[in-house]
Amino acid sequence: MRLAAKRYRAAAVVIAASLVLVGCGDALQEPKLVKRGLSDLSESDVELERAKSENQNRLIDPKFAGKLDIIDDPSGIEAARAFFDDSDSMVLFAPDDKSVLRAATLAINQHLPAVEYDPSRRGDILNLVGDLEVKRLVIVGDIPWTQSSGDFTVIKDPGTHEALGDFTAFQYESKVVASPNQVVKDIARLDKTPYVELRPAWIPYEGEPDDDGKKLPAVPAQSRRDGQMAPNIVATADSPVANVITAAAYGGSVLVMPTADPLEDKRSMAMVAGLDEGSLIALGPEFGHVKEFKEKIRQGTPN
User: What share of the chain is helix, strand, coil (3-state, %, to 5)?
Assistant: First the structure.
């Protein structure tokens, strides 16, 4: 009995020591480098070897694994196809700044694809609606779009706080975006502060728009599509906002690079280091051709 007791106590000591060591390991683990906010660091604080290791040792959605794509379509149509296989609702927004920020607020919080309206792409938008099996098309801003078919419902957003509450069943606070140069960055970080409506500081606030007081139908939230396995997704301040909105709505963390050329800034390189063969999605035409972008990543990545 005594021998058994001693063995039991010895086993307990080993288990306890193991738990302490695991706890120490967790405590000593370095915080992640490649994340939103990386661009706020100074270049001297960026370790490319560490960034490369983080980039290459992640679980990736098989849809994007081993692929490097540049989405250069400014409308958001190709981004919607890339990140969504289907969606019950979609946001279609006018290109003015107020509508852009309003669309971002709704689409990212509800995890919906968003497309910028271009009258020359009307047929492509309708094709996308059909392919994604959209049941609700939410119109944000001044767009000449009426209910044209029984296949989906058109919901026009009156632009009020009350409408956001009707759509989402939540109350929103306002956040002012300081300047047009800050739009992409604030949109990319919007999912970190849910239930915040973005408003442009450079457009005077004229109060709530008039509406008829009618309660609007709900636009149900969808689940994140990334499954916590999104590829690295990069943008710049010049990237098409529709692409950024849709990537963020998919659930991915959009990393805003200081420069589209990763060889020009160490922080930009850290966001793509080691990913010349993927898994990487770039959200704008400013990244150039895939072959050239791959070569720049290869040149700047430590061996």
Answer: 45, 15, 45
- Within 10 Å of residue 290's Cβ, how many Cβ atoms? 15
Predicted confidence (pLDDT) per residue in 183-236, tens digit? 999 999 998 777 899 999 999 887 777 667 778 999 999 999 999 999 999 999
Q: What is the DSSP letter of 262?
A: G
The span from the CA of 234 to the CA of 265, in Å, is: 14
The β-bridge partners of 254 are 233
Per the listing, tokens 């990140």 go with 83
Q: How many CA atoms lie within 13 A of 127 on its CB side?
A: 7
Classified as helix, coil or strand, 93 is strand
User: Helices marked H in the chain — which ranges?
Assistant: 2-28, 48-56, 77-83, 97-110, 122-131, 161-168, 183-188, 241-250, 266-272, 290-300
CB 187 within 8 A of CB 241: yes
Query: What is the value of pTM for the model shown?
Result: 0.88
126-152 confidence digits (pLDDT tens):
999 999 999 999 999 999 988 766 689
- DSSP class of residue 150 equals T
